[in-house]
Write a structure and sequence with these properties.
The complex is a heterodimer of chains A (112) and B (599).
Chain A (H helix, E strand, L loop, with lengths): L4 H15 L9 E6 L2 H5 L2 H14 L5 E6 L11 E4 L6 E3 L4 H15 L1
Parallel strand pairs in A: 1-2
Antiparallel strand pairs in A: 1-3, 3-4
Chain B lengths: L5 E6 L2 H5 L2 H14 L6 E6 L11 E4 L3 E3 L7 H11 L26 H4 L17 H6 L4 H9 L2 H11 L11 H10 L6 E6 L8 H8 L1 H15 L3 E7 L3 H16 L4 E4 L4 E10 L8 H8 L23 E5 H13 L1 H5 L9 E8 L5 E6 L4 H8 L9 E6 L5 E4 L9 H6 L8 E6 L4 H15 L5 H18 L5 H17 L3 H5 L2 H9 L1 H10 L13 E3 L9 H5 L5 E2 L7 E2 L9 H5 L5 E3 L1
Parallel strand pairs in B: 1-2, 5-6, 5-9, 6-8, 10-14
Antiparallel strand pairs in B: 1-3, 3-4, 7-8, 10-11, 12-13, 12-14, 15-18, 16-17
Helix pairs in contact in B: 6-10, 6-13, 7-8, 7-10, 9-10, 9-11, 10-13, 17-18, 17-21, 18-19
Classes of the chains: A alpha+beta (112), B alpha/beta (599).
Chain lengths: 112, 599
């Protein structure tokens, strides 16, 4: 099927979030999820899934969700940190699904 | 489809494929499935990353972790550690520097190898799946074609290409915009666009990598060229020795047709364009534009006299616009980013970037794309990681069998068309072979000449006979029978072959001899007068001997010698019978006391 201009543009927009993963961007907002053994045990995998899905759903090309294997604060796991170039790191502890959604909404908003 | 949080890019170039990258990609899928990550992590087979010596290469995004020399057994560890727990596997990450034991960078753009590079022609290699047109479109694919067809007149397109300063990347460096103009100026109903993918320079593989990693960029550019010149049919002439490139190109053409990017009435503008792929049998001469066209026409690949130039009378006797793969790969970038952005890179008269294939005695063997005018020193010492094993840089051969060598004294020469011509070499198609102190320059000249003698098509006498006579003189010199007059005769012959050959193959064949004569004449003289090969390469001029002071009589060499040339009793110094010795060097590698010398 021949593609029209609008279809091509739609494809580009739809894929932008996914493809931006492969472009290194130092100014991207990095959402770092603590995924050490304690993190995973405390449910960090689900938390990350929530954030990734939110970011994906909003096609937020300036947000990168990254896993971190270090256990920084096992007692307060799951831990989510927000890294922005030139700003202080913001750390969220004992994140649950609702909090994760909130965090995602915040970074997506900031990215826009 | 689920939104994947990580992408595993597995190199699918020829180099990595031969070291089992398809199996590695399959193993990743299997292990991800087992770990329950199959819908979170996507595995993508992509094009060449450039660091071919360290293949198979795997890059994991979003971190950009660069894994090298990955084996199937490593896959489980990467999945379990990196993708399940977020701990990159340190052991497999790329280490830079000599012997690859240096610094580790978490991201590939921070490495010495990539930092100075500017990837334009190779922009999508390693970034997209070349067999998926959607991924090409996602990175602004077919945007340039649309812009050209809908908003620009053919002459405007040509003016943009002219303003960019782009010059032919296949070797001669002819201004691309002018070539397009000549083809456009011809009044004719039928014209052709032709893409030269007959990459024959030994050691160069940038065209192959573009076709393997980003075939759509060539297809799109050919359609743009067709619009600019008034052609509706394009031919890609690619060698059959590039099966992966041919396969992906065919897939890409099929997908482009399906999406209406090739065929009738593209973007509803009434412009028709389609592409036909022709396979070549791998003759070097078919990279010469007129021989290439003769071969496409179904005849034996022999060059034709120019003029008439292809723009006037080319393929099937019709006006033809012919460019090389890498040249085409720059076109869409120029249209999308503007000719000024392209012209801002490079030097006064050599604009943009050029891909070089680094090979020979260099740590980082592979493909690098650098702004024109980057010095040879930066390429060898920084990007290339220097000469391995603590050896000294002796020379670099650029432009393959058509080019010349740059000695260590010229290592600060900028790599651009003018500077290279000024020192007697060429940019050529971008082959760059580094030589260290163990290379004999006469032997190197002989190597390239053997290649051109083999590849000469035989149509014209200066090339067919002249190159063979030159090779005979070189053989005479390297076997120790040469005279000083032979060197003079060789030089004279070079000039004749250069001046009188029909096509570029013969006209440039003497270059390796002339440039080694210019920069390393003393080595030729040493072969002729002293009957010595200073680098210890030319076998006929070597004599192996055992120093009786150092020899302990351990018999290791005598047992290793394949022709029984070494004799002696245990614990007594041994001797070599030079009449039996075949100078294979086995004894030297076996001797633990450094008692055997050659010279």
């Amino acid at each position: 099927m021949a593609k029209s201009t609008t279809e091509l543009q739609e494809m580009r927009e739809q894929m932008a979030g996914q493809m931006s993963l492969r472009v290194e961007d130092k100014n991207a907002i990095r959402v770092v999820v603590g995924m050490g053994t304690c993190g995973i045990a405390a449910g960090a995998r689900d938390i990350m899934r929530v954030i990734v899905d939110e970011v994906g759903a909003h096609n937020a090309t300036h947000v990168k969700v990254i896993m971190d294997g270090n256990n920084k604060d096992a007692a307060n796991a799951p831990v989510v940190e927000i890294h922005v170039l030139g700003k202080d790191t913001v750390t969220y502890t004992k994140v649950d699904a609702a909090k994760a959604k909130q965090i995602a909404a915040e970074v997506i908003g900031e990215a826009k | 489809m689920n939104f994947a949080r990580a992408h595993i890019m597995v190199c699918g170039g020829t180099g990595c494929t031969s070291s089992k990258s398809p199996e590695i990609a399959a193993e990743f899928r299997k292990q991800l499935e087992a770990a329950g990550l199959a819908d979170e992590v996507k595995v993508v087979q992509t094009g060449c990353f450039g660091l071919c010596a360290l293949g198979p290469i795997v890059v994991v995004y979003p971190e950009g972790s660069f894994y090298s020399m990955v084996t199937i057994d490593d896959v489980k560890e990467i999945v379990d550690e990196h993708l399940v727990k977020g701990r990159p596997v340190e052991r497999l990450l790329y280490h830079e520097g000599a012997d690859h034991h240096g610094t580790v960078h978490s991201s590939l753009n921070d490495t010495d190898f990539y930092r100075k590079q500017k990837r334009i022609a190779l922009r999508n290699c390693g970034r997209i799946n070349p067999e998926n047109i959607d991924e090409y479109i996602a990175f602004d694919g077919y945007k340039a074609l649309e812009k050209v067809l809908k908003t620009m007149q053919p002459q405007e397109v040509i003016d943009v290409v002219k303003a960019s300063g782009l010059r032919g990347r296949g070797g001669a460096g002819f201004p691309t915009g002018n070539k397009w103009q000549f083809a456009a100026n011809e009044k004719n109903d039928v014209k052709y666009v032709c893409c030269n993918a007959d990459e024959g320079d030994p050691g160069a593989f940038m065209d192959r990598s573009v076709l393997e990693g980003d075939p759509h960029s060539v297809i799109e550019a050919m359609a743009i060229a067709g619009y600019a010149a008034g052609a509706h049919e394009g031919y890609v002439y690619v060698r059959a020795e590039y099966p992966i490139a041919v396969h992906r190109l065919n897939i890409a053409i099929e997908q482009a047709r399906e999406y209406g990017m090739l065929g009738k009435n593209i973007f509803g503008t009434g412009f028709d364009f389609d592409i036909i792929v022709r396979l070549g049998a791998g003759a070097f001469v078919c990279g010469e534009e007129t021989a290439l066209m003769t071969s496409i026409e179904g005849h034996r690949g022999e060059p034709r006299p120019r003029p008439p130039f292809p723009a006037v009378k080319g393929l099937f006797g019709q006006p033809t616009l012919e460019n090389n793969v890498e040249t085409f790969a720059n076109i869409t970038w120029i249209i999308n980013n503007g000719p000024e952005a392209f012209a801002a890179m490079g030097t006064e008269r050599s604009k943009g970037t050029k891909v070089f294939a680094l090979g020979g005695k260099i740590t980082n063997t592979g493909l690098v794309e650098i702004p024109m005018g980057t010095t040879l020193r930066e390429v060898v010492e920084e990007i290339g990681g220097g000469v391995p094993n603590g050896k000294k840089f002796k020379a670099a051969q650029t432009g393959g069998p058509s080019g010349g060598c740059l000695p260590a004294s010229l290592i600060d020469t900028p790599l651009d068309y003018e500077s290279m011509a000024a020192v007697g070499s060429i940019v050529g198609s971008g082959g760059l072979i580094v030589m260290d102190e163990d290379n004999c320059m006469v032997d190197i000249a002989k190597f390239f000449l053997e290649f051109t003698v083999d590849e000469s098509c035989g149509k014209c006498a200066p090339c067919r006979i002249g190159t063979r006579r030159m090779l005979e003189i070189l053989n005479k010199i390297t076997s120790g029978n040469g005279t000083l007059e032979d060197i003079d005769r060789l030089e004279e012959l070079c000039e004749h072959v250069k001046a009188n050959s029909l096509c570029g193959l013969g006209q440039t064949a003497p270059n390796p001899v002339l440039s080694t004569l210019k920069h390393f004449r003393d080595e030729y003289v040493a072969h002729v007068v002293d009957k010595k090969c200073p680098a210890g390469v030319c076998k006929d001029l070597l004599n192996y001997s055992i120093d009786p002071e150092k020899c302990k009589g351990c018999t290791a060499c005598a047992r290793a010698c394949p022709v029984g040339a070494i004799t002696g009793t245990v614990k007594e110094p041994h001797t070599i019978d030079t009449s039996k010795c075949i100078k294979c060097g086995t004894c030297i590698s076996k001797c633990r006391f450094g008692a055997i010398t050659k010279g």
